[in-house]
Structures are given as C-alpha cells and as structure tokens.
Specification:
This protein has 348 residues and is of the alpha+beta class. The chain has a single domain, classed as Muramoyl-pentapeptide Carboxypeptidase, domain 2 (2-Layer Sandwich), CATH 3.30.1380. The chain is built from 9 helices and 15 strands. The longest helix is centred in the N-terminal third of the chain and has 17 residues, at 101-117. It is globular and about 60 Å long.
Length: 348
C-alpha cells in the first residue's frame, strides 16, 4: 500500500487533526457585511452531465443533523464503487462511502463533467462518512455526511494521466508514490494535474443543488489552481467563490482536497448546523429562501476520534528505517506544513 502507508504512519491518512476543520476562531470570524459579496456563480456550461445518480431518492431522503464535527446522518446514501468518471478508493473502508444525497450527487456530477471534457479522467474518492454519521476513525469531522476527501488528479513523468494516489505534493506540484519505505528504487514520481483538478473544482462550485462551504487545500496548490483558472479563462464568479472558500488548515492537505458542503435548506429546519464562516452570498441565499442561518457552537466533540500525533507518527516512521529519499522529502515538507495564508478574511 505505497504512499498511503507513509501517510498513514505520519498523519493518519491526512485527516487526524481534530481542530483543523473548525473554521476561524470566534475572535477572527469576519463580519460578513463589512466585505463585498462574491457575485453568484454563472450558469452551468453546456457540458453539464446527465445525472449519473438519477435513481437516488430525492434530497429529502437524507438528513444531515448537527455539524460536520459534532453531527450524525439519517437516510444516508453510499457513493457507488464506480461511476462515470469516478471510483471510490478500494483501499479505504467501504463503511466510509456514505453521505447526504446532495453530497453524493455533487461528487458524481462534477466527476462526470471532467470525464466528458477530458477523456480518460478518473476521480478517486476517499472517505466521506459512515452510514449513520458520527465518529469516524482518523477524522475530526466527516460526521454529518457533508464532507469528502478527494485525491488530486495526477500525471506521470511523461505528462500522461495516471491513477491518483495520496502523495504529498511540493511547491512545484511534484511528489512521490513511495513503496517500501526502506528502499528508494521503487518510488514513483507524480505530478499535480492542475487542468483536471481545476475543472473538477469549477464543476463543484457551479453546482446549484449543493453549495460548497469549504475546500481545505495547501496554499501552494491553491495558487496553482488559481493560475490554472486564469489560464482557462474560468468565470470570474467561480474564481471569486473558490478564493473565498479555500484555506490551508493546520494539516496542510497537500495530498488531497477536503470538500465540505453547506446544510441544505430542508436540513437546516431539521437540526443541521453549518460551521463558520457565514459568507455574504450564503446569507443572501438563505434570506431569499426565507430561512435563517444556523451556525454550530464552537465546542469540541464529545466523542473524539482516536488520532495519532505528529510526534508519534514520526517515531513510527523512524522504526521503519526509511530510505534517505523519504527522510529528505519529509524534511522539505516542513517548509509548507504550517504555511500561513496571506491575510484572507475567511481563513484563520
């Protein structure tokens, strides 16, 4: 289990921190009216897909209750093991494929947009949540069916699409799929595919059914995605929305995207709670629907998932007697592990 083994030892598959999903602290939460709202996203492009999950029950079938860090789920639906343009990572627990109808459909629709625009594209999806939500191993969130870990699209050395793996990527968008940690001759170099990753993100943000609340991603890959959006001449409203919702948390998310969706309007009336921040455009949309925002209280989970600290993980790696190339990459990784965001209002 190549790079996943390394990440599992180091940071419990990239999602161990219980605090990085909490959003900005109360002291740093912006006052929405003090900032100009992002324009609404443009209407979907003509490449909008047929609905690959049209047989799913209506959105009222599922109910997200509570918050992403202190919630549960009723009427959950699983992401299919495979669909048009996507696959659920078979190395992950098959019990972690569940989410709200809106979440599952949003992932599937966006993946199909990419596969139709760029043939032979395959999105690899990691953990979403458990069938009844709640506590899930190695995650501080993913508890209410509205979070999903998505691997980046990758290229090989020849610039060809390759199967995505959970490989941390450096400032140049390069990483390694490490095999045996004690060897250096079985490592595979991988490259960030900004073109397909941006197209997926654009499709998510352009989806009218499920609004993206947060995308956690490392700063240097966020910058590459913004540059790709400019290269593709992406709609200004989508780019502005992406700029608003993206942050690097305490764990840098340099091997995957962590996407979180807002509560649906129906679920807000049934006990669903959004984590901060409350963007001006979200407040306006709720006002138009005649619904008041519901923000979760900033409390720690009463049932925290077991996590491995970074110090413990590094000791575990040391016991493996890793190859110098592995140690060298991990040493370089410290340069961006705690990289601060440049003063953006919706990131702490």
């Amino acid at each position: 289990m190549r790079t996943t083994r390394l990440l599992g030892l180091l940071w419990t598959l990239g999602c161990s921190a219980t605090t990085h999903d909490a959003g900005p602290t109360a002291a740093t939460t912006p006052v929405p009216i003090a900032l100009p709202p992002s324009p609404p996203p443009a209407a979907s492009a003509p490449d909008a897909p047929s609905d690959p999950l049209a047989t799913l029950p209506p959105s009222t079938h599922s109910t997200s209750i509570g918050s992403s860090t202190n919630g549960r789920l009723e009427g959950a639906v699983p992401l299919p093991a495979r669909g048009p343009g996507f696959v659920y990572n078979e190395r992950r627990s098959q019990e972690a494929r569940f989410g709200t109808v809106e979440t599952i459909r949003a992932i599937a629709r966006a993946a199909e947009v990419v596969s139709r625009a760029i043939p032979d594209s395959l999105l690899v999806v990691n953990d979403i949540g458990l069938e009844q939500g709640g506590r899930i191993a190695h995650h501080g969130s993913h508890r209410a069916g509205r979070d999903a870990d998505i691997l980046f699209y990758l290229l090989d050395d020849a610039g060809r699409p390759m199967r995505s793996v959970g490989a941390p990527l450096d400032q140049e968008g390069v990483g390694f799929d490490f095999g045996d940690l004690a060897r250096g001759d079985d490592d595979v170099r991988v490259h960030f595919d900004a073109r397909r990753t941006w197209r997926f993100v654009q499709a998510l943000l352009d989806d009218p059914e499920a609004e993206v609340q947060r995308i956690f991603v490392v700063e240097h890959l966020r910058a590459r995605l913004l540059a790709e959006a400019e290269r593709q001449k992406a709609p200004a409203a989508i780019v502005a929305r992406f700029a608003d919702v993206t942050c690097q948390p305490g764990y840098p998310h340099d091997d995957h995207l962590h996407v979180r969706w807002f509560c649906s309007v129906e679920d807000l009336a049934r006990g669903c709670e959004d984590l901060p921040p409350l963007y001006p455009w979200r407040a306006a949309a709720l006002a138009d629907a005649g619904v008041a925002p519901v923000l979760a209280q900033r409390t720690r989970s009463e049932d925290p998932a077991p996590v491995t600290t970074e110090a413990e993980a590094r000791r575990n790696v040391a016991r493996q007697k890793p190859h110098p190339d592995v140690l060298a990459f991990l040493a370089r990784r410290r340069a961006w592990e705690k990289a601060p965001h440049p003063g953006r209002p919706y990131c702490r």
